[in-house]
């Protein structure tokens, strides 16, 4: 970066002298932490990915991603974030970091150099997390659930491009610049709002903003009893759609409406379960599974918790947390059948149920049929696109798989589960026999989530089959540290429903890498 001084809060950074001052007094800061600060400040508020930080701060060195976390923590301490309550370094989950609080705005030519994602060829929108104005902080899950349902309703509009929930929620709890959100997510419109739940009353407010100009296009509030929650969400959706396109047919809005359950208690358990499942730890998945079963118990015809329970079993299987594999295969099959019968209009349930049926139970044909139905119902559903990519890869339709995964990544460019989509892209390239690309995508996934086994196994097998045995052996050593019980004899239970010839290649790659019988 240039040698010009940069000011933020009570700090001044002198890049040329490699010096950070607080109230004109030099701050003690380690070299790596200072280098991270210089890299973030140079980006002038733009996202700096973990890969970019590694390249700038540890140029020419191979280091673990944990090094970044250690030195970012040291940087936060030097900036006295905990004491002052001012957060200069903003974490973008699964992606990298952004620096906020610079006194001088980025010049116009810098903004042009970071144009963000291009706009789709149709109206596009991101729905940011709504503020929870309830007196009880524990109601956060309810506000999040309201937003998620609005996103789902909007995404059923075929003419509309809707950013997925996981990317929108990376802005949760932050003061944001709507224009910057528009650039980072590649959308024209941004919806903000709040939810207040008190006793049996709910108020939802919303405002639609043109991200290119910052102009407010529409604002309103909707009040009703808790029993009216689905109607209130529909009213918000209809108002937003009308503000974006006044001439759109009302019939299309009506088709997007749904009443998923007549049981508000069942719906509440679903929202609580969703709040847990997004955290993705073993304990959170177990807790979410229990909550989804409570929702099912209260309304056996409510398809969404059936699909989400099936997803929990998939996540347990993929991460080696399965306690009784045969029992879980039977249960996933049962849940998916329930989704097929009662969830004909529930794209979320169909996508997750279909993927779990394919991955856990190995029923690729019926799993794909459920996912196809989900895509017909909701062409903006990221889960359906990456579920389709996953199943298509196992079926050997690798070009389609890669295309569908790319669609999923565009729908959620800041997704904390980006590593999952990258890992499945690596799987598709492996099945296609393109081992260099498989390693490239698997390495991206492994950097995002160092303990996700699938991509690391892929690096081992692909490297071995392409003659890079040193890299293969290093990757296998990492796999064995995370999964000490892995052997060629139980490999098939770990890796999903490969076709026989593809699995034979994968097993041979793992054997060449050194995996014992």
List descriptors.
alpha+beta; six-stranded mixed β-sheet; globular; Arc Repressor Mutant, subunit A; 24 helices; single chain; Serine Threonine Protein Phosphatase 5, Tetratricopeptide repeat; 517 residues; Rossmann fold; 4 domains; four-stranded antiparallel β-sheet
Q: Please bin the fraction of helical residues.
A: 55-70%
What's the number of structural domains? 4
CATH C-level name of the largest domain: Alpha Beta
User: What's the CATH topology label of the largest domain?
Assistant: Rossmann fold
With helices defined by DSSP (H or I, 4 residues minimum), what is the helix count? 24
| Uncertain spans | 104-115, 246-257
Approximately what portion of the residues adopt beta-strand conformation? 5-15%
N-to-C CA distance: 53 Å
* Helix-strand category: alpha+beta
Task: Kindly report the average pLDDT value.
Answer: 83
Number of strands: 13
Rg estimate, integer Å: 24 Å
The main pleated sheet reads as: 6 strands, mixed
Any guess at the CATH architecture of the largest domain?
3-Layer(aba) Sandwich
- For CATH, the homologous superfamily of the largest domain is named as ABC-type transport auxiliary lipoprotein component
- Give the overall silhouette: globular
